[in-house]
User: Fold these one by one.
Assistant:
Number 1:
Amino acid sequence: MNERWSSEEEKLQAALHAAAQNVSPGPDGLARIRRRTAESPWWRNPVFYGVAAGVATAAAAVVIAVNTLGTGADDLSVSPADSPTSSQTSVPSQEPTTGPVDPTDADPTRDPDDDPGDDPESEPIDPAEEPDETEPPATAERMALPVYFTVDGQVNREWQSVTGTDPLLAAADASLNGTSFDPRYESLWSPVEVISAEVVDGVIEVDLRSPVELDADPELADEAVQQLVYTVTATAAMPLVPEVDGAVPVRILVDGAPADDLFGSVDVSEPVTRADQIDVRYLIDIDSPAYGADVSSPVTVSGVAAVFEGNALWELRRDGEVVDSGITQTEEAFTFSPFSIELGDLEPGTYEITVMEDDVSDGEGPEPRFETKEFTVVAP
C-alpha cells in the first residue's frame, strides 16, 4: 500500500523540518525535573469527575499527520522534508546533537534547505580523492525524527531534532543510545554501536556491533526489539528516505552478519515486522508540546491515544496547582486515534499537562495510564 500525502501533510512535513533546523537544546533541558506532589492521583478525586462531567470538548485538527502508527503502511508515522537518502551511508561527521521538536513553532513558509549545518571539524579533502562533482558529499543537517523509547515496558515516540547525514542511522542511534527529554522515557538496550542502517532490496538492514545486550528484565526482550523496529520503520516512512514506499520489515545484523537471535531469546533469523501497536505501544502519547519546549500562546496540546470509548481526562497544573481540567475525545474509540486540547491563552510560566485514561473500573483495576509533558509559555 502506498503512502499518500495530502496538501496538509505536505505543509506539516515542511513545518516540522523547519522547526528541526531552528531547535537548539538549552543547557538545562535535561536537568529540568517534573514536580511531584504527595497528594493522591488527581484522577481518583471525585471532585474532578464532577467538574469534568460538565465539559464537552470536540476533537480538533491534530498537528501530527498520520499519527496512529500501526502495522500497515497507512499507519506509519510521517514527518518532515527532504534530506539525504539512506543510500548515502556515510556516518555523520560529528556526534549527533538532539533537541526537542515542537511542530507548532514551525514556520511552514521557510525553505528547509536555507541552513544546512556544515561540520566545522571536517578534514580537508585530498584532491586525489575528491568525489565526482555529480555526487557531492552529504552535508549534516538537522532532521526531525520519530525516536522511540519505552514507558512501563511499552514503546512510545518522542520527536527529536537530530543533526546528521543519514536519517535511519541517526534515528536508530538516538533510540538505542540517546537520552530522551521526557524523564519517564527510557531505552531497554545497553549502549551499542550502530554501524549502519540502510534500505537493501526492500528491507531495512540495521547492523550492530557486538556485544548486543539487554538493559532490562528478560521478559522485555521482545519490546526492546520493537523499540528499534518502530523507530527505523517510522523514519523510513518519511520523505527523508524517498526510496521506501510503504511498510517494510527490518533485518538485524550483528558485526555485518545476519543474527539468529537477540538477547538469547528473540528470534530475528527472518526480517522483523512491527508488532500490533495495541500490544506493544503505550496507550497515550502527547506529541505537542514536546517535553521541555518553549511555546507561545495560544497553546494547543495534541497527540494520539487508544482509550476506552475515546474519552481521555486532562489536567493542567502550574506550580503544583490545578489551573484547568477537562475531558477530550479521540477521533475514534478503541484504537490509536488523534486528540487535541485547546488551552487558549496562558500567562508566561512553566506548566505541566497530563492526559490519562478514564478509570472505568472505579479504582478496582490497574492504575490508568497517563502521559505528562512540562512546557514553558514565553512572553510574546
Number 2:
Amino acid sequence: MSSPALLFQNLRWRLFRNALSVLLSQSWWRVATIAYSCALIWAFLFAVSWYGFHQLKTQPTWRIPLNGTLIEYLFDAFFFTLTILLIFSTGIILYSSLFASSETGFLLSTPIPDDQVFSYKFQGAVAFSSWAFVLLGSPLLLAYGLEVEGIAPWYYYAVVPLFFLGFLLIPGSIGALACLFIVNLLPRLRKQLLIGLIALVILGGIVWMVVWIRQARELGFGSRTWFESLLSEVGFLGGRLVPFHWVSRGIKYAAMRRPDLMAYNLGLVWSYGLFAYLVTVWLARKFYRRGYNRMASGGALRQRFGGHWLDRLLTWPLFFLDEQMRMLIVKDFRAFRRDPAQWAQILIFLGIGTFYFLLMRRFYEQDIGRSFKIGISILTLIATSFLMCAYTGRFIFPMLSLEGTKFWILGLLPLDRSRLMMGKFIFSVLGCLLAGEFLIVFSNLMLGMAWLVVVAHMLAVGLLAVGFSGLSVGLGAVLPNFRETDPSKIAVGFGGTVNLIAGLMLLGVVIITVAGPIQLLHARTPETAIPIAEIPWFVWVSLPIGILAGGLATWYPMRIGLRNLRAMEF
C-alpha cells in the first residue's frame, strides 16, 4: 500500500494534468494570454530592476557598490516584506482550504492521518500564495546578478531558487500556526481577531510611514544624512537570528563568489524552514481535527440569534429600498463577511493602496514635480479600476451560479427573479463605490490634484462601478455554471473570461472618454487651474460617450440576463 504522501502527490499531479488538458482543449488561448501577460510583467520588472542597479553602480552622484551593506539592507527589507505578505496570504488560503472546503471534509472521513491532510493542503496553499512573489522577485535577483561587480558566477543563478524555496517554508509555517491558533483558541472571536491584527499592522505601518516622511523632509530626501538615518532604522532587519537576513546575506555571498558562506546561510534557511514545517505538522496532528470540529459545530455551544450588528448597520443606508430588497442584499453581504478569504483580500488591497497613496504627495512633490503627478494620478485610476474589475469578476460573477443548488428555496418565495438580480447588482455597486471612490479621492488629495481632475476620476469610478456590476450580474445570469461549487473555478471559466474581457474593454472606453480629456488638458498646463468656461469642446463631446458606454454595459447585460433567468427551470 502506498503512503498517504505519495497518494496525495499522485492526486495533485492527476488534478493538474486533467485541469490543464481541459483548459487547453477548451480555451488554449487563455493559457497563451496568461503566459504572455506574465512574461510581459516579468520583462518589465527585469528592465526596471536592471536600470536601477545600473544607475546605483554607475551614476556619479551615487556610486554605491552592489556588494556592500546598503544592498544587503535593501534585500533584508524586500524579504521582510515578503515574509509579512506570505504569512497573511498563506493563513487566509489555509483557512479556506482546511476549514471551509468540501474536499477537506471528505478527506477527513477517510482513514488518512490528519497531519497528512494538513500537509497536502499546506503545500498547495504555500505554492498558490508564493507564485506571484516568484514572478516579482526573480527579475530583481537576476538583474542583481548581472550588474554586481564582476558578474555573479553560474552557481548564483542555481542557488537563488533554493534560497527562495527554503525561505517559503518559514512564513508559510507561521501563517499555518496562526490559523490553527485562531481556530482552536479563539473560535468565537476569530474574525474579530483577524480584523484587529490586520488593522494593527496597517495602522502601525501608516504611523511609521508618516514619521519616515517627516524625517525625509527634514534631512533632505536622497542626502547622505538621510541614507545614514535610513540604514540605522532598517538595521534591525539584519539581525543574526532573522531568517530573511540569512536569505539576503546568502544571495550576496553567492554573487561575491564566496561559496562557503553561501552554503552556510543556505543550510540555515533550509534547516530552520524544515524545522518550522515539522513543528507545524506535529501541532496539526493534535489540533487540526479539534479546530475543524469546532468550526463544523459553530465554534461554541452557545449560539446567538437575531442577526449580526454589521447586517443591521448595512440596512440603515438602504432605507429607500423595500424590505425584500434589503433582505436579499443582507443575505449576500452575510455570505461575503462569513468568508475571510474574500474580505481579507480586499482589506489587504485597501491597506496596500492606502500605504502607497499616503506616500505619493510629499515624495513626488520633492523629486519629480507636478507634471509627473498627473501621470501618477491616471495610473492610480487605472490600477483602482483594474482592482474593481477583478473584484466583480472574482466575487460577483459567480454569485448567481452558486444560487443554482438552492434556487428551489428562493423559487418558493413570493419574489420576482428580477429582484434577485437587482439585489446582487446593488450589493456590488455599493462595494465598488465604497472602496473605489475612497482610494481615488484619497490618492488625488495626496497628490494635490485640481478639483476638476478629482471630479472626472470620481465620475469614471462611478461609471465603472455600475458598469462592472451590471456586466458581472448580467453575464452571470446569461452564462451560469450550476454544476460547479467552487467560485474561483466559475470565475476562470468561459463565462468569467467573457466577463473579464468585456470589463477590460469598458475600462478602456470609460477612462479614455471620461478621465482622459481632463487629464490631457491639465497635462498641457499643469500649474494653471482651468475654469469650467474655458474647457474645450472635445471634453464635452467625449464625456457623453463614456456615460453612454457605462449605461449600455449596465442595461443590456442585465436585460438579457433577466430574460435568461426567467426562462430557466430548476
Number 3:
Amino acid sequence: MARPTKWRRVAFMPQVTCFKPAGVPARLLEGVALSVEELEAIRLKDVEGLQQEECAERMRISRPTFQRVLESARQKVADALINGKAVRIEGGNFALPRQLFRCRRDGHEWRVPFEALASGPRLACPRCDSPSVLPVRPAGSAFGGRGWGQGRGGGRWQGGGR
C-alpha cells in the first residue's frame, strides 16, 4: 500500500486559474490540470529563482519530492504550450499560511486562516470587535510568517477561472 501524500505548503493562491490559447473557444480545447503545489514549485524555482533545496524547505517536502513536483508541472505546461491546450489550476494536497493581523484600536494580534479571509464578509478584532485592523507582514515572509492552515477544501481547492 502506498504512503499517503504529505501536505505541501504553498504561499500563493492564483487569482487567475485558467489559461487558454487566444481565439479558440474553450469548448474545443483539450486541457491539462496543474495542481496548486505544482504552480507553487514553478513560482519558487522559475519566478523567485531559488535553489531547489530552499524551494523544498519552503514547501516542507524533500528535495527529490520537490524535483518530481517541478518536473510534473513543467511537463504539463510544456504540453499545453506546444499542443495548444488550456491550463486549469486546481486541486492538490496543500496547506496555506495563516495571515497575522493587528487591531489599530487595542494592538491585539491574531492569525486568520486563508479560507476565512476568502469567505468572510468582514474582519474585526476578536477582542474589541473593531473593524479597524491591518495585516502584519514580518520582514522576509511571503504571507505573514509562521502558522499554516489547511488549504481550502482540505487542499482540494477548485479555482474559479476567469
Number 4:
Amino acid sequence: MADPSTADVQAELKEYLNSKNINSLFIQIVERLLIEKPDNPIGFIVEYLAKRYPDETRAAKVGHAITQRTGSLASNLTSASSRVESEEEQTDSEDDEYLDDIDLQPTTVPKKIVRRESVSAEQVGANTKQPELKIVPKSDEESTRIHEILRENLLFKHLDSQQTDQVKDAMFLVQHEPDDVVIREGDAGDNFYVIDEGTFDVYIKKEGVETKVKSLGPGESFGELALMYSTPRSATCKAVTKARLWALDRISFKIILQATTTARRKQHKSFLESVPTLEQLTEYEILTIADALVEDSYEDGDVICTQGEVGDAFYIIKKGSASVIQTDALGESQEIAHLDMGHYFGEVALIFAQPRGATVKAVGPLQLLSLDRRTFKRVMGSMETILKRNMKAYKRIAASNI
C-alpha cells in the first residue's frame, strides 16, 4: 500500500499540472521542436514562449529583475527600475513583428503631448450604464442607400453584415434648412452623417478666413472621425439646400462593436469546437483562433480561390457547400471534391508555400471563416501540427492540395 502522505503529494502535483495545463504546454513545445528542429533548442523555447505568451513572459522578466536587484532596496531601487525598463524595451524590440496583433494599453502619457481620446477609451462596458440602442425605421430605399455608403467608407467597410445592419438601424434622421451649420470647425464632434437629400458646402479656415473647399451631395458622408476620436471638428459643413441626413453617435457605435464582437466570438468558439479535426486544440487556442477569424459571404458560382495563384488565406466552411475543381495539363477540368460545413481548405498553400492546386467555387450561398497568411502562421501553430499528424483526415479533406 502506498504511503498516504506520498499519495497526497502525488495528487497535489497532479492537480497542479492539470490546473496550469503543464502537460499541454510541454506537448506544444515538443511538437514545435520536432517541426522546426532548431540548432539551439533552449533559445528556441525561450523565443517561442516569449512570442506565444508575451504578457506572461514579460511579467516573469520583470519579477526576476526586481528580485535580483533588491539586495539593498534603498540604494538599488532606481537602478532596478531602469534595468527592468531596459529589459522590457528589449523584449518589445524582439517582438516588434507581433505588435500589430497585441492589444497594447499604455499606462502613462508623456506630458505636453496632446492626444485624441479614442472611442476605445470611453467607459462603455459591463459596469457602465449604456443607453438603449433604438431601431429607427427606414424605407427599403433608404436602407439600401445607407448600406452602399457604409460599404464604401473606410471606417465601416471591414464590418460584417450583422454589424453593418446594426449601424444602419441605429442611425437617426436629422433635417436642416438652407444655411444651417451642421458641424463647425473647432467644435467637439459626436456624430457621423450620411447625406440622404440635399447639398452641403464644406469650409476650412485659412489664415482666419473661411474658405470653401468642396461640396457634398446625396450618398456622401462626413464626420466619421467623431466615431473614433473625441476631437474638434476639422471643417465647417453648411447646408446649401433643405436637407435630410442620417446620423450615428459615437457611443452607439462603440456599443454595437462591443456587443457584436462578443457575440461573434462565442459563435465562432462554439462552431470551432464542433469541428472534429480541431478537437485536440485547447480552449485558449480555440479562443485565439475565434478572435482572428474573419467571416466572408459568397453567392452561387463565386470563386474563392483559383488554381495556380499564390495562397494567401485559409478557410473553414461555416455554412453551405463548395466545389473543388482541378484543371489538368490538357486544360480539362473536373470536380475532384465537394466540401460542406466544417471542412477546411487553403491550408496546404500556406503550410508548404506552394500555389493553389485547385479552384474552389461556392455551390449556393456560402459562409466562410478565414485567416490570412500572417495570422494563420501566428495562431495556427497547433493546428498545423494536427493537420500534419492526422494524415487520414488531412488527406480526405485536403487531397486536392488547395
